[in-house]
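Recall from the previous lesson that a structure prediction takes nothing but the amino acid sequence as input. Here we apply that procedure to Phage gp6-like head-tail connector protein from Paracoccus methylovorus. The sequence below is the only information supplied.
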Amino acid sequence: MAIVTLEQMKDQLGLTADQDADDALISGKIEAAQDHVERLLGYTFAERYPDPAIIPASLKEAVMQLAAWWFENREAVSDVSRSLPFGVAEIVNEYREWAF
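The prediction returns the following tokens.
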């Protein structure tokens, strides 16, 4: 289950609903970003939040920030490359399942 819709992501990117040329690409970025955030958290959203309505807004924001970052910076190497966009790691760390 994707926690961010295509429409929400298009709003994040400043695109309108009729700009659909990149819909498949954007959907792929959402899927990849959610997978990455879930791996950082140590659990899937479906496991922790059986009702999607209770997923914290900040976790949705982390997925959108990461998906937007990957959409805007599609090259593997660039001047702005870094592991995660500013704020994503901080959001994830607040909800991460820590195990030692």
